């Protein structure tokens, strides 16, 4: 296994990636990966990548524009359309890797990016398989889960940031995770401790995000695209999820023609660490090997 630094361009900005090559002669299948809401690649996604590579799968793991080691101004701007474009650029880059098989490109998304991979697989019939881990599936379900008081507070901050953008002013930021009752985007009881448990000592991750994303969260419903996903698709659902309700995700996953579902009696952030991580990554590795390394 080897890991090298790689950059690719998405709409004029450089995206930073780690490219993992498995042992042996190619061509190898390759899994394109990126993280969830505000998170960067070193927040435990590298742990998944290492398991996949050890199982014979290549990996391209990247940071979105405006986040982490990637370029893009202003910083910490979470734009759904831009992130989907970054995914498309990363997929194109993966298909051009000299040791990778362009017909065996899979996607792995977690939390917010778990919704992105459903959206992308619905539009790109060349995708060979996807894994959607504790995925954001339905903004309306998330809005109901966080409650009207928090939704109203987030909307006020989001409008302030949107006005700043219209006037050419710097973004108005909110913490990505905060304690319950404090200003922030994710303020459930497990959000801040859960996210902080993923942050390594040396990190470029910042606990802030331009607040305007709050206006767009309710409108993003990638679960509705599940019925159009024709490739094998694994949903890893966290049943005690306070942000992405598990039963709602299961409803959408059931509509995927080749969908498979694994359910875990844990919270949204638990799946990244400890025994829960071990169970999930084993299920995901078996799924990816079965569909990408037949025989």
TrEMBL record:
Top-rank lineage group of the source organism: Bacteria
Any Pfam family: Peptidase_S15
Domain spans labelled Xaa-Pro dipeptidyl-peptidase-like: 13-241
UniProt KW Hydrolase keyword: yes
Any one Gene Ontology molecular-function term assigned to this protein's record: hydrolase activity
Keywords: Hydrolase
Family: Belongs to the AB hydrolase superfamily.
PANTHER family to which the protein is assigned, alphabetical: DIENELACTONE HYDROLASE DOMAIN-CONTAINING PROTEIN-RELATED, POLYKETIDE TRANSFERASE AF380
Protein's UniProt name: Alpha/beta hydrolase
